[in-house]
Amino acid sequence: MKLDDIKKDIPETPEFIHQIVLDEVEKQVAKNEIVVDLSEKRKKKQWKSIHAAAVAAACIIGGSTIIYAGSKLYGMLIEKQGKYSVKTKIEKETIPEEEGLPEEMKEVTIETGYIPEGMERRDEAHLSYKDTPMLGGFAFDTVLLDSNDFGKALTDVNVVESEKGTWGGHEGIYLQYQDLEQDGSFNQRMYLLYPEEYRVLIMYIGDDVLKEEAVKVAENISLVETEHVAKTKDMYTWSEFISPETDTSEVEITTEVFKNELKVFDVGETFQMECSGENEAGEYISSDNISVKVHSVQTADDLSLLDEKLVQQEWKDAVGSDGKLVDNTLSYIKKGDGVETLDEVVKTETVKQKLVYVTVTYQNNSDSTINHMMYNGNIMLLQDKDEKYSIYNPCSNSEKACDYVEGNSVARATEMRYGSVREDYGGSNYIPSLQPGESIEVSMAWIVNENDLDKMYLNLSTYGGNVEFTEGALKTGVVDIRQ
Fold first, then answer.
1. What is the mean pLDDT of residues 418-428?
2. Pair type for strands 270-278 and 284-300
3. How many CA atoms lie within 13 A of 30 on its CB side?
4. Taking burial as the number of CB atoms within 10 A of a residue's CB, which of 103, 148, 323, 456 is the most buried?
């Protein structure tokens, strides 16, 4: 199966978000622990420069607001393509005597003059509600204006609302995308033009934010120069944002293997696996002389098995007034093309959610102490058929044709969301130290749909993986925890 075959046609994710996902997958933290870090800019390819002169005034030309900066006039254009696709483009009018962009420019900080009630500033790049600090809200980024792609446009699909306007004196575009999940994802976006600073401000806006509040934030944002100077050739640009360098080769993922290719262990059975951490000198080490055993598997319809202090708020919110986990409504969805058609829900069903609680023992059989040892657990939903194991696809058993399934509660994925041993070391799923011959018991938990209990296999490889057979899963094996 190709990776593209299982992707949804959602708005193109910017590169900095991709990097965050890669970093966080490595750390295996829960979804609601993901932190978007915009503090470090990426070094990019050499690009052709444009003039950067002193800040000048705005002027009105032909009834359209065009901002004058240096020797150029800038404006933003928006063009509908089909029913649900929008193209965004920056236009310019050149004035004679152009000069090149300086080799260095001052960096800018993003200051918000308005913060919606109940929100707080987590850092320069984020606003979020106090009770959901890692979900939704706002994420901000800036890119540098350059001249490479003024003739090209940024295409967004699955757009259900679009508007061109001027907010806080800055011309821009507002977009809202189709959002079937309402799970704190960024379903809105604004592009604001700041030609005086030769920047475009990009606002990623969560589905927990009303458009009216997003507009108020946009009207009160300013970019303020800092004393820190950066080389312009290393700064991320608008042209790279709309035309990123991507690997066009097809990515294949393994969703089916023969049974003799995957080792399957029973609960109570000990096996060996590779783990990594640091030695006493703080140097990276890896050892395949770690033994592991799953002692027990329990299921419950509440959170009573867990340490309340370690339970994420999202799980607490999924408990009803009776103390039990609420039901999960599953939507079976047929993909649209994002241009003329949107994704469509073809069927819904309601299922119960269950807590799955597992106790695991790790023992260090090497002769070296391992500090900051990472552990991880992913539940793989597998079908056992015709001498093969395959990743379970709920659409394959649906009477109505669909492409993917989404739930409205917390049983959306089977990555580990709870671990009893924690260390603040780039994430929470780390064992502080494991001496030679020492063992430690760790409890892990997930919330799954009740109709998936008979398909569960536990992948303890620190390389993760729950929607494909990764190299780590095939090397380590999985534990049969079906209920």
1. 83
2. antiparallel
3. 23
4. 456
Find, among 112, 223, 214, 220, the residue nearest to 163 by Cα. Answer: 214
Sheet order of strands, 256-258 included: 256-258, 388-391, 378-385, 456-459, 478-480, 264-265
- Tokens 């990426």 correspond to 42
Question: What ranges make up the beta strands (E) of 82-184?
Answer: 85-94, 104-112, 119-123, 126-129, 138-144, 154-156, 159-167, 170-177
Rounded CA separation 290/294 (Å): 13
- Rounded to two decimals, the pTM is 0.71
Report residue 199 as tokens: 């920047």
For residue 223, what pLDDT is reported? 94
DSSP assignment of 176-187 equals: EE--SS-SS-EE
Query: What is the reported pLDDT for 426?
Result: 64
Output the furthest CA–CA distance in the chain (Å, rounded).
79
Confidence of residue 304 (pLDDT cuts 50, 70, 90): very high
- Of 228, 198, 99, 184, the closest CA to residue 412 belongs to 184
- For residues 3 and 250, give the distance between their C-alpha atoms in angstroms, rounded to a whole number: 8
Lowest mean pLDDT among 5-14, 43-52, 107-116: 43-52
Share of residues in the chain with pLDDT > 70 (%): 80
Rounded Cα–Cα distance for residues 34 and 125 (Å): 14
Residue 57, pLDDT > 50, answer: no
Average pLDDT over residues 239-263: 83
Residues near 397 by beta carbon (within 8 Å), at least 6 away in sequence: none
Q: Return mean pLDDT, the chain.
A: 82
Cβ neighbourhood burial of 423 (10 Å; 0-12, 13-18, 19+): middle
Position 39 scores a pLDDT of 36
Residue 247 confidence (pLDDT): 61
**SS3 annotation, 249-302:** CCCECCCEEEHHHCCEECCCCEEEEEEEEECCCCCEEEEEEEEEEEEEEEEECC
Contact between 226 and 108 (Cβ < 8 Å): yes
Between CA 331 and CA 269 the distance in angstroms is 38
Helix, strand, coil percentages for the chain (3-state, nearest 5): 15, 45, 40
DSSP string, 42-56: PP-----------EE
The terminus-to-terminus CA distance of the chain in angstroms comes to 28
